[in-house]
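Reproducibility note. Readers wishing to regenerate the assembly model reported in the main text can use the exact inputs given here. Chain order matters: entities are listed in the order in which they were concatenated for prediction.
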Amino acid sequence: MRAIGQPRQIASSTLIHVILLSYTLIALWPIFLIVINAFKTRKAIFRDPMGLPDTASFSLGGFSKVLARSDFELYFGNSLTVTIVTLGIVLLTGAMAAWALAGYRFRGNTLLGLYLAIGIMVPIRLGSVSILQLIVDLNLVNTLTALILVYSAQSLPLAIFILAEFMHQIPKDLVEAARCDGVSEYKIFYAVILPLIRPAIATVGVFTMVPVWNDLWFPLILAPGDNTQTITLGVQQFIGQYVTDWNAVLAALTLAIVPILLLYLLFSRQLIRGLTSGAVK
Amino acid sequence: MAAIKLHNIKKAFGKVEILHGIDIEIADGEFCVFVGPSGCGKSTLLRLIAGLDSISSGDLTIDGQRVNHLSPPERGIAMVFQSYALYPHMTVYKNMAFGLKMNRRNKAEIDQKVRKTAAILQLEDLLDRRPAQLSGGQRQRVAIGRAIVREPKVFLFDEPLSNLDAALRVQTRIEIANLHQDLKSTVIYVTHDQVEAMTLADKIVVLNEGRVAQIGSPLELYHYPQNLFVAGFIGSPKMNFIQGRISSLDGSYLTVSLADELVVPRLHIAPGAVRAGDTVTLGIRPEHLREGGEGTIQLQGKVKLVERLGDNSYVYLQLPAGTSLIATTPGSSRVRPGDTLTVSTDSAAVHVFDAQGQAFERLGDDPRYRL
Amino acid sequence: MKSRFPLHILVFLAPATVIYTLFMIYPLADSIRLSLYTQDETGALSFVGLQNYLTMLSDPHWSDAFWNALQNNVVFFLVHMLVQNPIGLLLAALLSLPRVRGRNTYRTLIFMPTMLSVVIIGFIWQLILNPLWGVSESLLGSIGLKSWFAPWLGEEGSALITLSLISVWQFVGIPMMLIYAALLAIPDDLIDAGIVDGASHWRVFWYIKLPLILPAIGIVSILTFVANFNAFDLIYAVKGALAGPNFSTDIMGTFFYRTFFGFQLQVGDPTMGATVATLMFVIILLGVLLYLFGVQRRLTRYAL
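Running the prediction on these inputs yields the following C-alpha cells for the assembly.
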C-alpha cells in the first residue's frame, strides 16, 4: 500500500472505478437498449437503435398492440396471485417448521432437518413427470393452485433453513421467560417468535418470490391454459407469436422488465442485505 | 534509533474532526502509553502513526524523517492488534514469517529469525499449530512475536491485553515490560486501563475528546494532574472532588470554605490570577484520607458502604451537605455502614482546580505528596 | 423427554412437511420408480428393470441425443466456471477494497440482470444479437471490430458458447454477492495486519483473503453446477425445445423436456422422461458428493 494521496494510489483507484464502471455498463446496456427502443417508431428502432426517443421518433404503438393482442393484465394478476399466496404459505408453514426444529429438542430432529434440506440441493424439476401425474390425479391441471402447491414445496426447504438459522439466534431466555409466565407453546410461537423473525422475512421473501415469479417450466407444463398463464409464460408465448413485430416485442419485454426493476430498486437494500447476511452459507 | 514526533496532527472523517491537533514527542527507546476513555481518539492516533489511516494535517516524523506519506513497513513499525489479527489459515511459524516474506528476505534468514524469536517467547513447541489451536495467552505471544521478528524501529500495541483474563493480563503485562527492557526499542501502547498505563509507561499521554489532556511520567500525572480530567482518570479509586469558594488569600496560601461552614486552610499554591470569592474544586485522593482527626483538614460524614478488599477497605462517606467521599482505610478498620466517621488529611495533599477545571500548581514540600 | 411425541411440535411440523413430501419428495421418488417401468399405448405400466437406462445410454436413437446433451451441458458449466465465477470474484474483490466510493451503487446495478426472468434475458439478447437489427454489429464497428460480427446465436459452432455467455452475463451477480459477503466477513484487523507486515493490496488478497474465502468459492461452484445441470429456460426461450441449430445447444433440461413431452413426430414418453430426470439426479448427486467429500473436506473453514 502506498499511503493516501500518492499518485500511485490515485491511479489504482481510478483503475478500480474504470473496471467497475465498465462492468456496470455491460450489465445495464442491454436492458437500457430494450427499454428505450420500446418507445420508438419502427423506423427509428432500425435507423438509430442507440438514440433516445425524441419527439420525432417517440411512439407507444408497441404497447397498445401488446395490450390489445394479449391478456397482459390477466397474466400479471396470475403471477401476482401465485407469488403472493406462495410466499404466504411458505412464510407461515416454513416458520412453524423452522421453529419446531430450532426451538425444541425431540427425537429425529436432526434427521428431519436433513430430510427437509434435500430440497435445497435437488431441483424439484427432476420430479416433473410425477408432479404432472399428481396434478392430473388431483384434477388441478390449469389451475393456479397447482403452481402454488408446487412452488411452496420448492421454496420451503431453503426458507426453513434460513428461518431456523435465524431462530437459533433468538435468546432461549425469551422463550423460557414466556413459559414461566404460563404462555402456551402456540402463543409463544405466535406472540414471541413471529414478531422477532421479521428481519429474516425479507431474505426469505426474496429467495421465494424471485424464482417463482421468473419460472417458465411449471407454468409451461402445469398451467399453460389461456386463463392461468403467468407473466413469464405469457411474454414467452406472445413473443413467439409476434416475433417479427419489433415494436410489440420490445414493448412486451419492457412491460415485463420495468415493474421488476422498480421493485428491485425499491427493495435492493433489504435484498442485498439478505444475500450477504451469510444466511446462505 | 527511533524518536517520534507528532506535530499538530489532525484527523477528520468527512466533516467530523476526531483529533484536534496533537503534539507529542517520544524519545528513542521510550515506552509511551496513550490512555483515555473509549472514544477519546487514542486508537485512531495509533492507526495514523501506523500508516493505516491517512493524517488529515500535521507532521509525523520518525527519526527526523517526515513519514506522513510512507506505507507502514516503510515507516519501520510493527503492530500488535487488540484482536491479535493472527492469520487463521497459517501456522504460528508462517504467521511470524509472513512479514519477512513480504519484505523478500531469504528463507534461511527468515527461518533463523523466526526460531530465535520463538525461543525468546517460548513458542518453539507451537510453531506448527494454527491460531485456533492456541490459548488466548499463546495467541497473544504469537502476535507479539510476529511484531518482534521484523525488528521494527517502533512497536505499536493496540489494547493488547483486553482479551485476556485478569491473571493472564498481569502476567503478560510483566512480560511486555521485560521485553521492552531487553529490546530497548520505542513502544507506543494504547490502553483504556490506567493501571496498565501506570505500570508500563515511561511516559503517559492522557487523551480526552481528541486532545492531549496531559503528558508526563506516571508519577507526574499522579502528583501533578493539570486538570480535573487527568486527576479523575489517574488513580484508583477516583480522586474525591469537593466544591468550594476561596474565602481568603494570603500570598501563595489559600483558604477555601466548603458547604456546611467547613473551612480548608493553608493550601499552598503558585500565585496566579486568583481572587477571593472564586469558585474552586478541591481534589483529595482516597488514599490520602485517613481515619481519625490528626490531619489539618477534617471531614465528618456518615458511612454508606464499606468495600473490604482485605489489605484495604474503601469507605464510602456522605458529608452533611450531600457530597460523597471515598476513603481508603487499612484492612484492619472496623468501620461499618451507619457509623459516623471523621477522616482527615493534610493541606499539602489537596489539589485545587479553578472553575475551568485547570489545576493550580501545588507548592508544598511534604515528601508524601510530591514526586 | 416425554414418551409421547409432543402434540404442538407435530402441529408445527405437519403443514410444511406434508406439502414438501407430497409435492417434492414423493414426485422425485416416484420419478425414480417410473424410470424402471415402460408404458404401452393404453397407458399401462410394466416393470422393465434397468432396461430404460440401457436404452438411453446405448441405443443410438436415444444415446446420441443423451451424450450430446450431456457434453453440451458440460461445456455450459465450464463456461460458467471459467468466466462467470472469475468475473464475480474480481468484482467482489474490487468492491471489498477499502475506500471504494459508490460500492453499493455498483453492487445494486451489477446485480440487476440477475433479478429478471431468464426468458426475458434470452429475448433481450436474441434481439441484440439479431443481424437484422444490427445493434451489435454497429457497436463492434465503433471499436473497429466490425468484421468480427457473425450471427453467433444462429451458427452451430458458436450458439452454445453464446448462450452460455448470456447466462454468465445474467448471473455474475450471484458469485459476486456470495464472495463479497465472504470477503466482508474477514475482520479488518487481518487486512491491517497484512498491510503492516508490508503486503501490497494484491498480496493481501492473494495470501490472506483468497485462502479465507475458498469455502465460499467452493459453495459458489457447487451452486453453479446444480443450477447449470438443471438449466432449461434460457435455451427453451431462445432456441425452443429443439435446441437448434441441429441440437447444438441441447442440454439436459431441454432433452428432458423433449423426451417427456415429445416434439414434432416423436410422442412424449413419461417413463423415458423419468429416466432422463433420474440420470440428471444422479449427475447432480455425483457432483454434490464429489464436492462434499473431495473438495469441501480439504477446504478448512477458519474461525474468523
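We highlight two features of this model. Chain B has a mean pLDDT of 91. Chain B has nine helices and 20 strands.
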